[in-house]
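pipeline stage [seq->struct] | target=Nitrate transporter permease | organism=Tessaracoccus flavescens | residues=446
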Amino acid sequence: MSKLIEVGPVHDTGKGAGRVLAMSTIAFTLMFAVWLMFGILGIPIQKELGLSDEQLSWISALAVLNGSMWRLPAGILTDRIGGRKVTLFLLFASAIPAYFVSFANNYAMLLVLAFLVGFAGNLFSVGTAWNSAWFGKERQGLALGVFGAGNVGASVTKFIGPPLIAATAGSTYFLGIQGGWRLIPVIYAVLLVIVGILTWVIVPRQDRAAGASKPVKEMLQPLKNVRVWRFSLYYVAVFGAYVALSAWLPKYYVDNFDVDLTVAGLLTATFIFPASLLRPVGGWLSDRFGARKVMYWTFALMLLTSGILMMPNGYVTVVHPDGAETQHLQYQMGLLWFVILVFVLGCAMGFGKAAVFKHIPEYFPDNVGSVGGLVGMLGGLGGFFLPPLFAYTKTWSGFPSSTFFCIFILVAICGLWMHITIVRMLHDKSPELAGNIDRPLEEARP
């Protein structure tokens, strides 16, 4: 029987925090792999069931939806009863639908199971609140960055999926389990149970909770603050877009660069790795320089890379006085430059994801579960809306690169809102400076 101790907003790093961080990160990595496995599995599924691009996009989207919509209540529950119990429940509960995915034989059944498998994605808000309760303020940024690096789980299926699918296709195993793409969810179901058992054994029985005696109404109070919703929009850009691209890029590579599924998975991993593994670096940079500066760097890099990626080929047309037209500076982006730019985009997202969550324990130290849950929920919902948006804008425009146009517009809105907010904050704090900015240097001197 586990015990629970309540911690206040200011607390020291607890004995056993390292074990909590290690097991929560391992669990999150696995759960993230399960959550986004349809990014790779979707391609052979599309061929087997004869699905359109739009139908395929809804499989990943429904998984992302269910992996986002429960993040707020899961975060609140973690603050009340501790992350140990909630993590164990999510691990064991997600193993059941993951196993049954291997037996899906029609589109409707697959949609239902994809939705249920998506429940795994809710571990993020649980782990955020759990680690925040165990680590002191001076180490929270790095700890949350390390935990968040579990996003790298999105690359696991990209690596193991294609070779396993190719090697086992047509085979049948114990209990009638088939090879090919159907074997992957069975492997994940077994791993979920194993990690659940290890978590139960390794993490401290005496758990910590930030709001064990706090009424739910009080925990929801900060959600009225517009700052929480601003942070949520930032997270749509740095996490929702990351989730969407992790699922969408394999198909993008296959369709537009004529590579096979194995190569597409490996190339997608060059986006996932920096977007995940640089999250601890983003946490450290946020601790050192401040989360706001890191967000500026993030949005600038994302605007630059997505702005180029949305116009991968083109030329400048000059219209002469006589009406004649000539074309100049023609350019065409090859696979190498595309991969490099997507890699840089992933780096920016890795920094940004940590910076957004560095804000939360600073502004809302005793409501990390509820605020982090809402931010994570809305960020994840961005991953639900974006894949279908990518598919439909491609159909409407005829341009596959419209994917990055959607990301560019989203980031531009986030960056503009952040900058306007900061300018207003500076004006409110120091209104006397407003009159000095435009005055001649001689007049401005005291």
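stage status: PASS
auto-comment: The mean pLDDT is 84. The longest strand covers residues 325-332.
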